[in-house]
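Entry 14. Two folds queued back to back today. First construct below, sequence then C-alpha cells.
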Amino acid sequence: MPVWFLSLARGESVEAIKKAYSIAVEHARKIGGRIETIQPKHIYGESADQFGYTLQIGRITVNLPPGAVLVVWGFYNADEYFDFVRFIQDGRVYEWFVEPIAYYPERVGVWIEEPLIFRNMLYIDVHTTSTEQRDRVYGWPLGYFVSPLQPPQEVKPPKMRRFGEKRGGRAGRKEGE
C-alpha cells in the first residue's frame, strides 16, 4: 500500500506538522522533557559524526534512551536513487516509498497519515536502487525527539522482611535492650 506525501507548499502539510508538534509537546509535558528536531545523535548515538544527516544503507538500529520518544512527520530526500525506507518496531513495519520526494522542489514530503511515534528501540531499513558502491543515501526523517530532562528513576522492588520481623525492627526485641 503506497503512502502519500504532500509537498510543503500544500496547506495540509502545515496542519500535519502542527499535529506532530502538538503530540511531541504532550509527550514532553508528561515526562517533563524537552523537544528537539531529529538529529544524527538521536539516530546513530555515538557514531553520529560518521554519517551526519544522511542514512546508512542497510539496517540501522536506533536505541532511544529510557523515556524518550521519536515523532516522525515527514522525510527529506535529495537522492533520486533512494527509493524506500522501513521503520520497524515491535513487529510492526511502516514502509515509506520516498523516491518521489526527490523531485519535489523543496525535497521534503509530509506524510498525510498520523505521525509515527517510536519508543525504546527501532530499526530503520534503508534501500537504494543505485548500482554504485555507496554506504549512504541523502535523505533524513523529519520530526521531533522528545527526551526527559532527568532520566527516569529506577523502580526498586520493596525489601522483603525476614520471617518473624516486625515493621519497626527485629522480632524478639524488648524495650530497653
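Second construct, same run, same settings:
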Amino acid sequence: MLKKSSILPIFILTILISAASALNFNITNLSNCADIPLDYTQDAEIEVADVSYEANEKGFFDTLHGKYLVHVHQIDHIDIELVITFYKCPVGTIGPCKDVLKEYIEAITCKRFLEDKSGPWYVFAPAMDNKNLCAKLVGTYQFTKAHLNGTYIENYMTIEEGHYRIRMLNHVPGKDMDIRNLRGCVELDFDIM
C-alpha cells in the first residue's frame, strides 16, 4: 500500500501529463528564414514555397502543405548539421521572436531524418514526396500533410501555452557559419493553446 506522501507526487504528475496532452498546436507561419539573406539562385540549395495551412476538427491549423525547391545537386554528401533554435515569441503581436529558449546542433543523416521521430525535422520527413532522396536531386517537390505533433518537440522544449518559433538552419557539417555553408533555413511559428 502506498503512503499518502508518495501518492501526491504521482497524482500531480498525472494531472500535468493530462494537461499537456489536452493542449493544441496552431501553426501561424512557415517560411524561409527572414533574417538570413540566402540567395536561392546561388547560395542556398533548399527553400520552401506556396505554403498552405489545414485545420483539424477543432479548428486548429496543425498541418501544412506546400512545395520545397532543391536548387543544387548533392552527390558527395547528403548528411547535414541542423542548427535548431527555439524562441518564445510575444503573444498577440507580430513582433520579432528574440527570446531564445534553447539552441541545439544535431547531426542528421538521411536515415535519421527519415526514421527518428524525436525531433522537429520529423514534421516534414514523412510528408516529402521524394523523402528517400533527402533533397539530394534538383527539382520542385511537394510536401503534403506535414503535421506538427508534440512528440516531435517535447525533447527540446517544455510543452506549455504560448507563442513559439522553431528555426531549423540546414548547414554543411564541419564548416563555419559563413553563408556559403548554409543549405537552407526555415522558420515555423506556432501557438500552444
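Quick look at the second one. The helical segments are 4-21, 110-115. The radius of gyration is 18 Å.
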